[in-house]
Amino acid sequence: MEKLEIPRYHPLAKAARIEGTIRVSVLLTEAGSVQDIKIEAESKYRQARSLFGAPVEDAIRHASFRTGCSAAAVNFTFHFVLATGGGTTTVFYGNPNVFWILAEPAVWQP
């Protein structure tokens, strides 16, 4: 992986306090472009797949892959987690290709 724009925490997911994990398997062509993407969602909320899956797929499709990854399968894990106290979205990286996207939950005001 040379370049990947981290997907944002969906505003509706923040408002509904939805968390989830998106696991992605990407099959690359000989030229290193995306040939196929398989996405699995893990969450106690069924909406997690649609709220997190589409932005993750978009990020993967626009990513740049190293030429050494050509004709390979590459796996990614994105954990979308709500956390209080930060005020902004924070991203943590782990190896290999594991990301934690932490966001402040939406505040309801009467």
> What's the CATH architecture?
2-Layer Sandwich
> Mean of residue pLDDT?
90
Quickly count the helices.
Answer: 2
Number of structural units classed as domains: 1
How big a fraction of the residues is strand?
35-45%
Order of helices and strands: HEEHEEE
- Helix content bin: 10-25%
What is the number of beta strands? 5
Q: Structural class per helix/strand content?
A: alpha+beta
Q: What overall geometry do the principal axes of the alpha carbons give?
A: elongated
**Main sheet properties:** 5 strands, mixed
State the end-to-end distance. 45 Å
Radius of gyration (CA) equals 15 Å
Biggest sheet: strand arrangement: 2-1-3-5-4
User: According to CATH, what is the topology?
Assistant: TolA/TonB C-terminal domain
Assigned CATH class: Alpha Beta
Break the fold down into its secondary structure elements and pairings.
Layout: H1 11-16, E1 20-28, E2 34-42, H2 48-61, E3 73-82, E4 90-94, E5 98-103
Parallel strand pairs: 3-5
Antiparallel strand pairs: 1-2, 1-3, 4-5
